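The protein record passed on for reference:
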Amino acid sequence: PATTPAELARKGQIYRQVLSLLLAGRRPGFYLAADYEALARLTNRYLHLLADAGVIDPVLRDAALKARLEFRNDVPPSAAQIYIATKATEQLRDQLVSMLHLPDLYALDRLDLSGWSSIDTAAQRRISTVLSSLGDQAYEHSLGRYGEQLLGSATPARIAWSVVLYERGADCNFVRIRADSLNEPFDINAGAKLQLGSTAKLRTLITYLDIVDALHGRFVALPRDQLLVIADSAKDDPITRWAAGWMAKTKGRGLQAMLDAAMQRTYSGSPGTYFTGGGMQSFANFAKWENHAVPTVADAFTNSINNAFIRLIRDIVSYEIAQDGTQVSELLNDRDDPARMTYLRRFADQEGRVYLNRFWRDYRGRTPDEALDLLASRTRPDPRRLAVVFLSVHPNARRAALGAFLAQHLPQAEISDDELWELYRKSGPSQFSLRDRGYLAGIHPLELWLVRYLQQHPNATLAEVTAASAEVRQEVYTWLFDSHSPFQQNMRIRMLLEEDAFDKILQDWRRQGYPFGRLVPSDGTAIGSSGDRPDALADLMGIIVNDGVRLPTVDLRRLQFAAGTPYETDMIAAPQPQRVLASEVAKTVQRALSSVVSKGTGKAVSGVYRTPDGAPLPIGGKTGTGDNRYDHFGRGGRLISQRVVDRTATFVFYLGNRFYGTITAYVPGQAAAEYHFSSALAVHLLKALQPQLEPLLNTPISSSGPALSQLPTPEISEGPGASSPASD
């Protein structure tokens, strides 16, 4: 009730506002943006109708008639969103939308559903508090995180952090902490493909040991004489040669003994230049002393020596090539080997597709004249070159049309009738092959062909273009098929052999949980050039800790629908364990990870964590530093330009036999150029988090798994058809 004139005026204003909004719903674009007076007249008419019908009294009618609406010219500023505090919950809610095949979160909020998560909310809160304080320089100094390979002069506030901790259960692994400091929806742990540096050595080591495991199965029952023959014939396959020789000389042929011996094989750490990834590449070590080292595989892993692992993956590539029966030395030296032409035709088809796709993106959707003008602009303004371009696209054109084209593109040139006739007579397609015309025009032959084809088939799709160009792609590479070019041929054959080998390596990495469908076919993959994800590395760590068996990772353990109704339904995760690695391989890798912490790149955390009775907690892990940038070099290796993409530091680790996880530092964009930290920064954060993690690490083991936390109920209003706020 309004008891004063001011209260009555306010009451009338509010009534007019609500009524106007309801009426504007008929034509909101018109009433709320185009014609305010039309909305005022409509509202006044309805106020009279409402009063005449007795819905409102005349006093309220008159107060509302006197009120005036105010319209905003600008959208009001939205409130700043704080993601950090609720990020883990929001990720679980997004996961539920996907699991339940719902269209959006709105639909989720209107289900009668409660969910229980494995995340330890108390530990999550403690870790989040630390992460939110890491941008403060005084706090960073108190943690001892300034120094060599740690924080430098750049502000620590730009570094985003992610900490994820998992706990092994009897039948599945539980997410216990999922925290990060990035106040955005982006999930550092699982949301992108990041360059994580030397963590790739963990996957490379496992692939190597998997090969040794496979060779053990092949050789264990063979007699010594046969093993020596195999070793002698495996000239292009160093791993098989070593395995057969070791087995021939050893009485105890157990798998564990062979894996231990494989870890003691040596590889030089000296820098070298190799043909890989389609060109000559060289790789640097982190420390100068590594250039002169000849470490064992175990020591190279412990100290993360780059060039030793480059040589290791080269041996892995050689092994994969040899599995198809390919003798590389014979293939490259015997020019009469029919397999050579098979590889060369495949290369011509493959590279031709790459060029066609590129040209297709440039010319699709253009008119014939626009396409021809673009083609002409891609060569030097020379009469002979332009004549070849024009006649390749219009082979039946008259001499006058050629003259008009040259006059358009060479307005300053004076071309006589005799010169024009000579160009017309000697530049047409009948005079030269497509390959030669491309050379004369200074344009890729497939680009000439594509523009001509699109003139005849303007609506052709890329698939149709690709199919129509099959023979043409072979034709333009006849120079490669020439037997007088063995060097060029061998280079391309080696590229294809390497690609095939990396396709096989990818299958092993995918079995380990590698999240992407392609590896960069380069030895640089051994030190991180193919990228990875922290959560995928954690999945691999869970396999290693669980003796080679993958247990499903669970963050939503239980869902309850319609509690207390006849439709009540409880759903609990039903895990399906899967063996990924031989138990002996998992144990060997776990010892290698332990060595990284006890005496290698992760030793800053050695001895920091303790069991409840004071004994050192066994810790292992693998470090990795990603410095992702595009460098463009000129002649002589001179750096022309550089674009910095991001910088990362990662530590994937296990703590005892129950817990494992990842810590990742991430600086995106050009700002990453200001930072020079290494993976030691991530290791030092795990060290600093010991007080916050200790209460969780020391909780007693429960046969039913960790205690579950019910997800909070979202604050929502009732929607259409909802009788009460829904549970999350």
Remarks:
- Residues 486-512 form the longest helix (27 residues).
